[in-house]
Design a protein that fits this description.
The chain is mainly alpha-helical. The chain is 55% helix and 4% strand.
């Protein structure tokens, strides 16, 4: 029974990784192209407010992250993957925040979103909240709200 569960788990992870490596139109769209309007209407306003609040909070942080134990953590240690509303499953990247401020993380997030890389945009916002795992986990559970918050940031 345990062996069957282990085989099932391994095959599920392999399938998820294979699916995540398949290019998705929304993740490979041209820079500057906005997501479909219907996607933004599906995000609850409370989630959008929370995501925007966390983005603004990180933007105001100019303190550099130098604590190697905490700041050298790879994004892949935050969780296993992000699941977007369109069903896209993307594994977290092997990337670090070391020596960057929260503001710089948001700058990286905005650049990734501009390049069409939704997953990295969300992960950079998550990295801006290394000190607060509850916020970081909330952001991971609401990637579409984070993206919409980034799109409206600075408006």
């Amino acid at each position: 029974m345990i062996r069957a569960l282990a085989i099932f788990g391994a095959s599920t992870v392999a399938l998820a990784v294979a699916h995540a490596q398949t290019p998705v139109a929304a993740d490979t769209q041209a820079p500057g192209v906005a997501a479909p309007a219907s996607l933004s209407t599906q995000i609850p306003k409370a989630d959008l407010r929370e995501a925007s609040s966390q983005i603004r909070r990180a933007w105001s942080s100019r303190t550099l992250c130098w604590d190697t134990v905490r700041c050298a953590a790879y994004f892949s240690s935050f969780a296993t993957a992000l699941t977007f509303a369109d069903g896209t499953l993307v594994p977290l990247a092997h990337e670090q925040r070391l020596s960057l401020s929260g503001r710089e993380c948001i700058q990286h997030a905005r650049a990734a979103l501009h390049e069409g890389n939704r997953a990295m945009a969300v992960q950079w916002v998550m990295a801006a909240h290394l000190d607060n795992p509850l916020v970081r986990n909330w952001l991971a559970d609401h990637p579409d709200a984070v993206l919409e918050g980034l799109r409206h940031f600075g408006d």
